[in-house]
Structures are given as structure tokens and as C-alpha cells.
Amino acid sequence: MNLLHPKKDKLVEAEEKRRDLGFGTQINDPDTRLLNRDGSFNVKREGGGFWSELNIFNRLVVCSWGRFFELIASFYLVLNLIFAGIYEIVGIENLQGADMTSVRSRLMDAFFFSSQTLTTVGYGRIAPIGFWASTVAAVESLLGLLIFALATSLLYGRFSRPVAHILYSDKAIISPYLDVTGFMFRIVNERANQLIDLQVEVAMSILEKQPNGKLLRRYYGLDLERSKVNFFPTNWTIVHPITQTSPMFGLGKEDLVKLDAEFLILIKATEDTFNQTVHSRTSYHSREIVAGAKFSPMFSDKEGAGVVTLDLTKISDIQEVSLSSEYVPTVKEVEIGKQSDFFIG
Amino acid sequence: MNLLHPKKDKLVEAEEKRRDLGFGTQINDPDTRLLNRDGSFNVKREGGGFWSELNIFNRLVVCSWGRFFELIASFYLVLNLIFAGIYEIVGIENLQGADMTSVRSRLMDAFFFSSQTLTTVGYGRIAPIGFWASTVAAVESLLGLLIFALATSLLYGRFSRPVAHILYSDKAIISPYLDVTGFMFRIVNERANQLIDLQVEVAMSILEKQPNGKLLRRYYGLDLERSKVNFFPTNWTIVHPITQTSPMFGLGKEDLVKLDAEFLILIKATEDTFNQTVHSRTSYHSREIVAGAKFSPMFSDKEGAGVVTLDLTKISDIQEVSLSSEYVPTVKEVEIGKQSDFFIG
Amino acid sequence: MNLLHPKKDKLVEAEEKRRDLGFGTQINDPDTRLLNRDGSFNVKREGGGFWSELNIFNRLVVCSWGRFFELIASFYLVLNLIFAGIYEIVGIENLQGADMTSVRSRLMDAFFFSSQTLTTVGYGRIAPIGFWASTVAAVESLLGLLIFALATSLLYGRFSRPVAHILYSDKAIISPYLDVTGFMFRIVNERANQLIDLQVEVAMSILEKQPNGKLLRRYYGLDLERSKVNFFPTNWTIVHPITQTSPMFGLGKEDLVKLDAEFLILIKATEDTFNQTVHSRTSYHSREIVAGAKFSPMFSDKEGAGVVTLDLTKISDIQEVSLSSEYVPTVKEVEIGKQSDFFIG
Amino acid sequence: MNLLHPKKDKLVEAEEKRRDLGFGTQINDPDTRLLNRDGSFNVKREGGGFWSELNIFNRLVVCSWGRFFELIASFYLVLNLIFAGIYEIVGIENLQGADMTSVRSRLMDAFFFSSQTLTTVGYGRIAPIGFWASTVAAVESLLGLLIFALATSLLYGRFSRPVAHILYSDKAIISPYLDVTGFMFRIVNERANQLIDLQVEVAMSILEKQPNGKLLRRYYGLDLERSKVNFFPTNWTIVHPITQTSPMFGLGKEDLVKLDAEFLILIKATEDTFNQTVHSRTSYHSREIVAGAKFSPMFSDKEGAGVVTLDLTKISDIQEVSLSSEYVPTVKEVEIGKQSDFFIG
């Protein structure tokens, strides 16, 4: 796609600065979080078509392994029960070798014949004779093959799906940084596989009082000390230095809470095993910020022997630290004009 | 690919401005739509090789689920009939256990033996003996495995195929926008999965009368208020502000119809579950424009509880609105020189 | 990867201009084509490891369908023969139900038992008893499953492999273009699926006589009238205008043949069904150029009804045309200094 | 992701220059290699969740073929032993056809029945009767199908995983280059498939003594004669010219060893069969540099017949060569200010 538009109208330009990352400016309920900690959105949908909303494949690819196996087992059970019922209707006497001595034994053999057909194991102790039983079995074995093809697809989808398992520190901190202070959080790769070419973007969203007294949600990009690394073998503390040009300058934790500030984190990387692009999102609400703290090192004491050892359980470990006297948070109204147009493509 | 060409000849530059998005300038039948509403093209092909045009895999991946299962069922039926015929030729007496009492029962058992071989269920009530029957069965079971491998491929292809299910409003509208008017349409994600990093491009195609009286199709890129969002959890109204620099400036709906105007929409996004790039295309013909309307909100009344609720059925809901007196559409000849060179890569 | 190197040494810059697309400057045998018509390279390799060179998966994914099924059938046959041999060694009397009346019938039943095990159809007319026969059968059925998993992988790989089926005109032509002449060739999508966002790059490679009399292969990028289109529903004639800045300026067909000119074509596009990037390469040797010709239209006569019809068989149809008197080819030595540095990334 | 940050604070800029590729500046043990020859990192992890660290799929995709088949065979054996035990508990007399004459024969038949169920071959010589044996068999056959689906996923994952098999010369060399010297190493594609659009980046990491006497790891990007090629059919010698602007200028091999210099190599390319992006990493430690050598040609003597022949075994072949007298290595302190900010994205 390369339809470039060389000259923008001023009016268009002005509006473009009022960007909203796609959330819109109307979400101004102070209790509404834009982005949940797990990266999902706070929007409910209705009126979509049944099949669109069902979206079985995506759900089965995304759900937990426990739920996945539970669903497969239930499905296997229910399908065999249904087919046992169908064989009963057709007449189980058409299943050669089935034990017809009692209703219970008859239905049991129909059920197990169904399972042997569905999985295509087909021992043959019980085998269909006659048109109808044979037809049902022929349909069931085809269904079994298709279901199995689906299971293979699902398993491959689950395994090969590009996911960034990034651990975020529980809290973001405000900490001394060089001769100023910095807004920081820490990340580490939860998995043993490698992520390369990581890019991080941080945006601050606050509720601003308009001249007409209305609340409007605004978005500010935060400059980072480093927004990109080539490799990510250890932990990485992402730092936004709170200099005079920062939209956070002069704001203390209480001010941020008052402004309903939420810090949106977007990470993009390349997963090294399958060379796929992966994304990770999270947000820190102003209530999840600790002012006056620093992160403890994550390296294990037993380094040496030429190998650096990283302890993942220390990701959220912080120590108290006093902020320099220079950092005097005062409530101030963030001016609309200062909003940086931070995400022109 | 990085063969850059630093200095372009003026002649080449001039020709480059006469870009056509790949449709060519000769499609000037006013009744011919360039792009259908579903994003497909209006071009028929002939003379391609049989296999090239057949393209079974792509068709089976793209077709509807109903058609897919219909084709699989027919294929299964036909293949079993063919093999039943082959076993009849070889001699069904070589199928141990087959019911030879009548032609009908014999052929039936051959048919079901075939299905039991193809699905590899192989109960064994009927089993091949002798060279020819065994050989046919050996070939059929291999074929069964390959067909099943194909089915697995097809199912995975169908499920993992990157598709953007974007709902477009039925009509595009011309609506008041800031202190001018705007050309607008609305989109929403039909599926519950997330699309991120959406980019939208809009081009207007019109039939221009050349100095020599010939009609020539021309293409103009339209500047958008916003052409990119990071997230797409709710609906998005795409706006082209009709300012003085707009190629639509001063054109009313009747003028657009007269010029056979067609608005081509191109959307590119990243699907979040599998992190794949997805495309969506559509077009609005000038006949599908409503001048003097605005979109009704899509949010449900039962918001609250910290969750925004979106009603997908409202995507095309519009309300009448009067356009400002400033917007006085007058027929004017669009000058060729004003055509913006909007899609240099 | 983002290790940028801001300031380049002059020496480095000078050497960079002597780029060679990766072929090197030593390939100066006039009979050696750099790129074959099908896009493959003219380089033989030896000394690679056996497995590296074997590369079974890639070969089976790339080979023709005929060869693919031939290989699968042979493999199935050979594997069953081998296992029949193993069962003979273990003792076919351990295969319950096998016909032991003659050596021939015994080996036949071992062979078919093997095929029934490998495909996991397992009728059970013949079934293993005792430790050794059962063990061999257990190993064979596992092997069968793995081979079948491999076949599924191969089929999916074959089908989902991103390939651009682009038809190139047999000849490149030199044709009148605006007020000069142009080097042209024509392409069309062989398949019914869509290619979007096509990018084309053309480079000319010639053998230049150095001041010391040595022949050196040089590469020049050719500016195109249009190097990119958004859509590709019909045919596309790619044009390099031979203006005064063109490295082809003043060279006739005989001069190009004398200079052993070869035109390397690189195409990059996005396949619309699976949204994959696809590449296509070819080359036109100077012997495959027709000077004084133009391409005949590819549109079918039976257009109308609002649908454009494209006849793929006309891709190479050309008509004779006289070149303007202005185009007077004269042999000239191409100066080294004029070489454009056309492919800095 | 396109949150751009237009104006950077000077403080942020200064810190950005102190980039570390993601390794951090604290890894200053002279015996610790940053990157191993095979491209892996020297960081150990602990405290990760059991399942995160287990990461079975990734391991099975990445491990060698020998190990892969070993694991599959062991898993098959162990699973059948477990199920044989379960059938013994349930009572092997419920397996119709099992040889109950001795404990050994009974367990053997349970084991082989299990293998026939797991692979779904199901001959039926042994078949379950009664509720419990049938239930266990039904579960086992479902398990078999899922395991087989997993195996298919694994095989496809192993085969389709984008890997660049790039052979690096054993040693990097310092060799005469134009009128100066150059740091060089040589690469060739180990596989017969094509790599296109190769990009190479080289960074030098050294331990610098800070004014306070502390050692700090620093990173310098090295300008290359050519950092990109379109095609890679033959070998490619990557050259960093050691001009006055090079951070290597004036440093001999002993100086590099003293500074614990390590040269990090990053390669990015597109694999042509599946059009996937592939990465390759390696590093040369200063101890792996040969000063005063040049690479021998890799072309085979039996060229001719229009085909260039490449001998892969010659990749590391070097010949001694004397460096120009101009190249007088002297120990010098590398100044911190000269560090080039080489990897701004």
C-alpha cells in the first residue's frame, strides 16, 4: 500500500495531532481502564453474527491447555454417545459381535464401536453389517478423519502461534535517573527461546479538563532512554527520563492518579525460533506506580564460571530510594497545545 | 529488493504522475465498476492453462464451509463408488467375508469395504485375499492417507488464512466536518479477535474528458483526517475533509455520479492472534453516497460498569443533517494538472 | 537489525558503487548466463555435507506433482518389500492367517500385511503373534504414522508455499515510447488469485573492457516508467524509457549482444489469499530482444457486459513497428564513471 | 507500531549513544564470550515457571534429528509399557484373543495390543471386551490420535522453520584491502536453496578502562565495504576497511586481545523457497583473528562449460600475506567520545 499524500491541509494536520491510538476521546469514565494488564481491551461487543462471534478455531487456539483437553475429551464423549444412539435406532443387531444380552451391554458395545470407528482403530471384534449400520459407520469414520485433521490444525496453530511471553514488573516506578528522575518498568523474556530486535513504545493517557469544563481523554508519547535493542538475553529496564520536555514533568503520583493517568506499553519483537513478529501489550495505571523506588538486580549471586545467571522471580523486586529534592511534584494543568504529535506513521 | 534509482528523468516523472493503481486508463465504460463491494476485481481471464485456472487448493481454501463439506462428501461417495466398481472387476469373491448372496449385497459390501479402507478404519469383517484385491486395497489405503493429509492441509489453510473481517457502512456520506464538509464512511471489526496497526488509504477514480473529447480514467488520492490507528477495539469513522485542496472540492453528489466517481478503499492491518498482515478492499460508487447525513453512535445504551459496549448492527445507521450553506456543489471540470501524484512508493 | 552506520568513508563509498548484486565481477565468460529464464542461478556446488545437499524436504516441496507422486509410490513399494523381507526372516508363520501354502503366497501375504500395517488400516485377517513379529509390526506402524505425518507436512508445504506464477513475454522489445524509445517487456498473473503491491526492478549487466584490456562485469539499474502498482488484475507492460540518462542510450541490439548484455528482472509482490510476500525472477539476454516491435493488446474482443476479458495466450504477441529516426544505435564504450550506484539499501 | 517521538532530549540522546545491543555494560569478565560461535547467548536462567522452561514444542523443533527420533521411540516404548500395566490392572482376560498361558505372554500381548491401539492399526486379533478394557482402549486411541497430531505439527515445524544455514570461515582475517587493510571474514550458503536480499551488520565489543579505572563494555558498529547483496549464489567476503575513521584503526591483534575484543556478526536474509526472513548470528573473538592472511578462491578448477563451480570445503582456506608497512599496530586507549552511535533504528 503506497498511496502517499504529499501535502496535508492545515486543518487536517491540526486534527491529526489530536490522535487517540484508536480508543477515541469519549472514553472518559475515570474507572474505565483502556488496556488490561494482560493486554486485552475493555470493549464489549454485541450484534455480531453468531458464527463471527463463535470463532471456534481462534478460541481453541487461544484458550489454556487445560480447557483445550477438557473440550476435546467432552467432544469425544458426546460424539460417541450420539453415535451410540444412532446405532441403537438403526438396530445394534447390525453390529456383528456386539453383546446383545442386555440393554446395557448392547449400548456399551455401540458406544465402544463408535469410539473405535471415530479413531479409525477398527479392531473388528464389532463390525457393521447391512446397509444402514455400514452407512453410519462410513460417515462416522470420515467424520473421525476430519475431526482429527482439525485437531492437527489446532495443535499446530497452538504451538506455532507467535506469542511474546514477556514478564512485566508488577509496578512501574519513579526513580532517580542521571541528574533527573525517570519513569521506569522492567521486562524479561519468560521463555528460554530468544527474542530479537525489540522495540518498545510508551504512551501516557490522561483525562484533561477542556476550557468548557468537559473531560477529554488525551494521549502523549513518552521519549525513552532506549526504545530498541538488538538482543534480549537478560532483563531490560525501560526508562522515560522526566526532563522538562516530558509531559510527566512536575507531576507527582497523586497528580497522576487525579488525572486518571494510564501508561500504555506496546512491545514488538521477532521470535527467533520461527522468525515471527510478536507483539505484547500491557498498561500501568497511575495506582500501580511506586514513587521513590529502584529495581534490585536480577542477576543471581552464583555468577562466575563465565556464565551470567538471571533469576526470573526477582522481576518485581524493588528497593526504596529517596527522590532528589529537585523533584517537587506540583499539580499543574497540562496544556493542550503541548501535546506532542507522537505517532505519525 | 533494493535497487534504488536515485535520479529520475523528467519524462519518467511526468508519466509516473499518470498512475493508475494497476487498473489502466482504458477502463472507461461508465457502467464498469473497478472494484466490487466485496473487494474482487471486474476482470475475466481466458487462455490460462487448465491446472493454473483449476487451482484446487486455493479454491477449497477460499470457498464457504457449506461448499467445502459438500465437496468432501461428494468426493468420498464418488471415490467409494469407483473402488467398489474396481473390486467388482477384480472379483468380490476375493473380499473375504463379503456377502455374495446377491448382486446388491455384493456391491454394497464392496462399497463399504472401500470406505473402511479409505479411512483406514479396517474392521476386518471384510478383508482382501489374493494378489489383485490386496493390491487394490493397498493402493486405496495409501490414497486414503494422502487424501487425509490433503484434508488436514486444507483445514489448516482455511483456519490459519489471514483474513480481515471488516464491516463497512453500506453508504459513504458527505457530512459537516469542523468548519467544512467531509467524505466519510465507517468501519468496525466483525470478529472478536483484535486488529492492530490499521492503515487506510482512499483513492477517487473519475472519468475525465480529455481536450480531444476522449474519456480517460484518472485516480486521485484523498487525504484523511487520520490514516492510521494503533488499536481498533471500537468503530472508526474515516474522514476525508473536503477542503480547497481536495479533488472533491465543489463537487456535489450529482457531479460525482456524472463523473462516474468511484471511491476505492484499501485497508491494511495486523491480525493479533497469529500476527499476520491482512488486507481488506472495497469501493463506494458515487451512487452509494448520501449527501447530508451523519453516522449515529454505535455504542449501546447499557454502557456503564466500566465497559464500553459496541452494537455491530448499527454500523450503517445514519441520520439526516443539513450541510452548511458554504457547501455549494457546482459542476466543474477537474483539471488534469491538479492531479496529485499520490502513490509514489 | 538496526545497526546503522551514519558516516561512510569515501573509500568505502567508492567501492560500494562497484556493486555486483551478489554475482561478483569475475563471471565474465560471454556464454555464461547469470540468471536462467526460470529464475535459477548458474552456479554448481560441491563439497557440501551429504545431508545439506540432500535437503529432502525442500526438494519434495519444490519438485513437480508427477515426480512427487512417483516418489511416494516408489517409497511405499520399496518399504513394503523391505518389511516383507523382515517378516520372512522373523518367520511368516508368526503372521496369523497368512497363506503358507507356497513361498509366493507367503511372501505376498507378508507384503500385504506390511502395507496394512504401514497405512494403519490393519484389517486383522493377517495379524502378528509372538514377540518378534509383533515388535516388527509395532515399529512399522509407528514408522507409518511418522511417514504419514511427513506426507501431511509435505502436502501443506507444497500447497502453502508462496509462489508468484508470473508469465513473462518471450521477448523484451525496444519500442517507441512518448518522444523517445523504451525497453519493454510484459507480465501477467498466470493464476486466478490476486497479486497486490507489485514492485519491479530491472538491472542491466554488461561486460566492460577495462583500461587494462580485461573484461569486467558491470551492473546498471534501469529507471522504470512505473516500478510499482497497487493491483495487478490485468497485464502490465514494464517500460524503461531510453532517455539520455539511460545506460542503454545509443546502444542498438547488436551493441547489446556485443557487450553480452543481460537484463535481470526482479519482482516482489504480495499474494492475496495467504498474504505472503512472493518473489519472481527472470532475465532477458540481449539475444532475446526484438528492436522495433510493440505488444498487441491482450484484451479479448468479447469485452462488454461490464467485464474486461484478458486472453493470457496473447502475452508474447508483438507487431512490427518502425523506430523513430532519432534512435540511431552506435557502438560506444560505456564509461565506468557513469555507472549509477543503484542499489544502496 | 508507529508512536514516533520527534524531539529527543539531549540527556536522552547522550544516553542513547551508550547503546549496548541489549547485553548491558556490566558483562566485563574477560573470559565471558557474549555470543557463542553457533549464535547462542551466554546467559543462564532460573526461577522461570516449570512449563515456561520446559517449552517442549520449541525444544523438539530445535533439537537434532537423532535426538528427535530417540525421544519419539522412547516415548512410544514408555507409553506402551504404561498402558500394558493399566490393562494388567484392569485384567488382561478382558482383552479377547490375548495369550493367557503365562504372565510373560499375557503382558506381551497387552503391550502389543497397546501399540496397535495407539497407532490405530487395530488388527483385532486382540480386542477389548467389557467396560473397563474398552474404556482404556478408547482413551488410548484418542491419545494416539492427539500424539500423532502433535508429531505432524512437530515435523512440519521442524521442516518449515526458517533457518539460514550459513557457513562462516573459521577465522576472521586482517588483510590488505585497496590502499589500507581490512577486517574480513567469509560466508557461503551451506544449503542448495537460495538466500536473497542478504544484509550483514558487524559490531565490535571491547572492554574499556573508564577514567575511574573501572572496566566497561563498549560497542562499536563497523562500516562495511558492502552490507547488502541481492543474490547469494556464491561465496561472499565481508570487508570492514580499517580506515582512519574505523574504531579498529591502529590496533593490532595483540591490542584487540588485550581489549577483549569480540566481533558480533548479524545476518538477515530471505529464504527463497518459503519466502521467510531468516537470521544468522556468530561472533569472532580477537583470539580467532589471523593478521596477515588472505582467503583462497573457493571456485573449483573444473569451471568451464558455462557453469561456475563452488567448493564449500574451501570456506576457511587462507594464505599468508604481508601487511603493508603502513599498518603499524600500537596500543592506544580508545576514547569514549569517538564511539559511533551506530544503531539508532
UniProtKB/TrEMBL annotation, chains A, B, C, D:
Main location: membrane
Gene3D superfamilies: 1.10.287.70, G protein-activated inward rectifier potassium channel 1
One Gene Ontology cellular component annotation held by this UniProt entry: plasma membrane
Entry keywords, A to Z: Ion channel, Ion transport, Membrane, Potassium, Potassium transport, Transmembrane, Transmembrane helix, Transport, Voltage-gated channel
Pfam families, alphabetized: Ion_trans_2, IRK_C
One MF annotation (Gene Ontology) recorded for this entry: inward rectifier potassium channel activity
Segments passing through the bilayer: 68-90, 129-156
GO BP field: potassium ion import across plasma membrane; regulation of monoatomic ion transmembrane transport
Domain Potassium channel: 77-155
Name used for this protein in its record: Inward rectifier potassium channel
Species of provenance: Arcicella aurantiaca
